[in-house]
Amino acid sequence: MRADARRVVAALAGVVAAGVVAAAGAPAASAGQEPLIVGGTPTTIDEFPATVIFNVDGAQHCAGSLVAPNKVLTAAHCTDGVKPAQMEIIGGQTNFSDTTGEKAGVTDVWQNPDFTMDGMQHDNSVLTLDKNLSFKPATLVQSADDPAYQTGADVTVVGWGTTSENGDVSDGLLKVTVPVADNATCAEAYEKIGDNFDKASMFCAGVPEGGKDSCQGDSGGPAYVDGKLAGIVSWGQGCAREGFPGVYTNVGNDYQVISSHLG
């Protein structure tokens, strides 16, 4: 059984300030995989200008990162089964309830062909927007051998997800910093509960005692190391649970194929 992907599902739908944050029309994740910022602190879009809201059918679905003026990198489990016409990207907005962000439609989606919902390997997609956005794009880590993936490296995760497992989504942008976890230890933890952790296309980050993590609604959002986009929020066992760090797409591992779709 696969743990939960970290996009918004119906159980997390709620009202945020003046706007309704509801479940997207995409298929719900299996019971177990869930992403949002738990144990985080408020931040602003000025600190992380490449972070974008990814709505489907007008409702909160996932997050993403601007990686070129008209390209957004997000998680493949956020695009699986969703048509470009259903998608909307909003940049430059700290709060969901704000209405001043730059909006763009999506004209094309490249979804990594090696991704499957069962395995979650290579969980990345590139969206082509119908206009350029004016914000500074993120810089990508370019190799799986980058020091960003060394055990103990500080990872800063950003998003609007829930602030507790099965809790309410956050109106304001949040961030949390957690260390890269040992790959072998992470793989052992997840394999004990029947999940396949792919050491090549994934990495883990979190504290052993739990309490800090991404959660539902953070899927597709950025995980930065030393200012570079090293990961994409992907999946985990619940949120911030002891012994189960969050799982992220290894951007460096898939850099070559991702970058080939950014031109």
UniProtKB/TrEMBL annotation:
Membrane-spanning ranges: none
Residue span(s) of domain Peptidase S1: 37-263
Keywords from the named record: Disulfide bond, Hydrolase, Protease, Signal
Biological-process GO terms, alphabetical: proteolysis
Gene3D superfamilies, sorted: Trypsin-like serine proteases
Signal peptide: 1-22
A Pfam family hit: Trypsin
Highest rank taxon of the organism: Bacteria
Coiled-coil annotated residue ranges, if any: none
Record-level Gene Ontology MF annotations: serine-type endopeptidase activity
Family label: Belongs to the peptidase S1 family.
Record's protein name: Serine protease
Species this chain originates from: Amycolatopsis carbonis
Lineage: Bacteria, Bacillati, Actinomycetota, Actinomycetes, Pseudonocardiales
